[in-house]
Amino acid sequence: MAEIKLAAPVGLPLDRVDGRLKVTGRAPYAYEYAAQGAALCGIIVPASIGKGRVAAIDVQEARNAPGVRLVLTKDNAPPQHPFGPVDLPDRFARAMPALNNDEVPYFGFPVAFVVAETFEQASAAAAMVRVRYAPAKGNYGLHAAAATAIDPGELGPNEPAENAIGDSAAPLPARR
Amino acid sequence: MKPFRYEKASGVAAACASAAEPAAKFIAGGTNLVDLMKLQIETPAHLVDINALPLRGIEETSENGLRIGALVSNSALAADIRVRRQYPLLSQALLSGASGHLRNKATTGGNLLQRTRCPYFYDTTKPCNKRVRGSGCAALHGLNRMNAVLGVSDNCIAAHPSDMAVAMTALGAQIETVTRDGDTRTIPIDALYRAPGDTPDIETVLVPGELIRSVVLPPPPSGRQVYRKVRDRASYAFGLVSVAMIVAHDNDRVRTARVAFGGLSYKPWRSHEAEAALAGATLTRASYDAAGKAALKNARGYGHNNFKIPLARRTLRATLADATESI
Question: Model's pTM, two decimal places?
Answer without folding.
Answer: 0.91
